[in-house]
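Hi R.,

Here are the chain sequences for the assembly we discussed:
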Amino acid sequence: MLIRPWRPWSLSENEITPESTYLNRRQVLAGMGFGVAATAISGSVFAKGAMAAVTGIPAERNPAFVLDRDITDEEEATTYTNFYEFGSSKNIWRAAQKLVTDPWAVTIDGMVEEDITIDAEDLVAKLGGVEERLYRHRCVEAWAMAVPWTGIPLKKLVEFARPDAGAKYLRIETFHDTSIASGQRQSWYPWPYVEGLTVQEANNELALLATGIYGKPMPNQNGAPIRLVLPWKYGFKSIKSIRRITFTDQQPVSFWQDLQAKEYGFWANVNPEYAHPRWSQATERLLGSNERVPTQKYNGYAEWVEPLYAAMPQTRELFF
Ligand SMILES: Nc1nc2c(c(=O)[nH]1)N[C@H]1C(S)=C(S)[C@@H](COP(=O)(O)O)O[C@H]1N2
Ligand SMILES: [Mo]
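And here is the predicted structure of the full complex:
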């Protein structure tokens, strides 16, 4: 087994982990202990759990999306993950194997022509072909990665859902099952995990409903069988293991907003000029290395998404 060297940055990253600092002391200590253990056991782990057969994988790469950095090592991106349902450490990939992702019912409801509950596989087939895209990902905790996602533009789901003219937002929910996800037994969190975005954002070309990564079906720990990927926003907006998508005229209150509205807003568009209340967002650490690089406005995707916000006041509210 590969024993990883101690990396000093992992300690400082633990210190800034926004998703645990406000928790009670007991929880913070438990999380740190687990983090230290994680550096010693996350070697040779290529079999990261059973993966269901998924439509269209591997898919053809869409050449419109190019990176300014190397693709993150696959093992890093699939073993260093945030998925609070399975615990507050980054090393939850093993625990996440408990999730049964096939069959997987997804419900589309709210302000739509007709509510529907459909298996994720059938939904993906109905929405059409998947493609591969290379995207940067920027966590609010100031680590970043660059990975090949497989997925379908979210706008195809909007089209399929046939929302009412009055629907302004998508409210998206993760599964809720305390018998599988030990993190969900921690009652101080507002489970299930919820995220939201506007219908216009969902219709933006960049918004992706992802079913795979590195040319393989999505591993559980990265959000199987279906998750959101919104690369111009902080990573917490990219909700994993989606169960329900509700079209609504009310701005959804997301999981982190509910916990700490002063630190995690609804828009959460990446911007190096607006610091998090507890740390700078000016630079980011590339996963799998000690290298820090400057963070870019909209995570480098301004040309795709700036028009979405052109009519809004360019204040901090848009960027936290
Ligand atoms: N359901 C759910 N989705 C989630 C999270 C989570 O804890 N639960 N964490 C978010 C955060 S903070 C980030 S940075 C990304 C991480 O995605 P990755 O683990 O695939 O890199 O997932 C997001 N989606
Ligand atoms: Mo994150």
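Residues 81-85, 139, 174, 193, 222-223, 235-236, 238-241 surround MTE (ligand 1) (CB under 6 Å). The first strand starts at residue 105 and ends at 110.

Let me know if anything looks off.

Best,
T.
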